[in-house]
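C-alpha cells for EI24 domain-containing protein. Go.
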Amino acid sequence: MTTPAAPRHPLASFFRGVGDLGRGFAFWGRLPGAMALGLIPAAIVGALLLGGIITLAVFLGDIVTALTGFADAWSDFFAGIVRFGIGAAILGGAIVLAVVSFTALTLLVGDPFYERIWRSVEGHLGDAPPESDYGFWRSVGDSIGLILRGLVAAVVAGLIGLIPLVGTALGAVVAAFLTGWLLADELTSRALVARGLDAAARRALRKGNRARVLGFGVATQLCFLVPLGAVLAMPAAVAGSTVLARTLLDASAAVGHTDPSTAPAGRRNGA
C-alpha cells in the first residue's frame, strides 16, 4: 500500500501554481504554431478593452466630480481624499472587470484557436482525453457566468478601495486573489470537462488544491496587467491551465479522491 505524500505547505503550493504558468510559457518553444494562433483573438479583445480603460481614465475626473457634489463644501484636503478614493475604486474595479472580461471574451471569440492549443498540449503530454465537443453555447454560458462573477469581484474590490488610507492597496490585493481564482476556474474547465467532471466535481478539485490554483490564477492575472502581457500570456495561460488540470487530477487520483480512470496516467505533465 502506497503512503500518500505529506501535504505541501500552502506557500510552496502557491509557487508551484506560479510554475504551472511558467510551464505554459515553455510551450511557445514546443508548439509555436498553435501558440501563435492564440495571439489573434487576444490582440483584438485586448485592444477593445484597453481602449475602454483609457477612455474611462480620460473622463475619470469629470465622473468623480459629478459623483461627489456633496463634498464641494468640504475643505480641499478632505474632499481630495474622498475623490481620490472614489476615483481609485472606480478605476480599480474597471480594471478587475476588464481582466476577467478579457479572459471570457477572448476564450469565446477565439474558441477554435484555444481548442487547438489545448488539444496540442494534451497530445504533447500524452493520455489525451477522448474527443469532446465543448460546444459554442457552453462557451457562451461560461463567458457570461465569468463576466458576472467578475462584476461581483470588481464591486467588492471597489468597495474595499473606499477604505481610507489602506483601501487602495488592500483593494488591489483582494482584486488580485479574487480575479486569480476566477481566471483559474475558467481556464481549467475545458480539460476537466473533457474528462467528465461536472461543476461540483471541478469545484471540489480546485478547493482541495486552493493554494496551487490561486498561484496559477494570480500569476496569470498579474501578467494580464502588464502592457501587452494579456495578449502574449493568453496562449501560455491556456497551455498552463491544461498542465495544472492534469496535475490536480493526478494528485487527487493518487490519494483516492478521484476515479483514476478519469485522470491521466503517470506524472508526464512535469508536476
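The chain is about 75% helix and 0% strand.
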